[in-house]
Amino acid sequence: MGAGMTITRTPVARATALDARAGMRHGIPILLCYLTALAFIAFWPVPVDRGASGLLRAISRAVPLLTYDVIESLANVAMFVPFGVLLALVLPARRAWVVPIALAASLAMEAGQALFLPARTSSVADVVANVGGAAIGLAVVWIIEQRGPSR
Is the pLDDT of residue 69 over 90? Predict the structure, then answer.
């Protein structure tokens, strides 16, 4: 750029910048609430599904493909989809960080369970499911944005 030249944003670029700021402004409080709930779930002293064993057995009997391990894995994926969505909204210019942040958060949760919660079981499968859920959330945001503004 030469001296005296300025960059003029197009209306679309201005709208995108405004959308990003709005996503951050609204996303941060929601992300904080979500992270609080996630911390309660992750660091609850006993397994959070302890009281649901009868229901989980009934589901597995009705649909044999839905074993306890499959249900637990799908629950971990579902639990981290909002993580990916919210981080993508809060970090619009740093979306490449969403999956690594999800990995770090998941590893911290599993390490905390292993070190401090003897009634809980940490596993690599949980980390994989959690990161997969965050990646799905990130993909959802990307797909919605690619569709453009609603009419």
Answer: yes
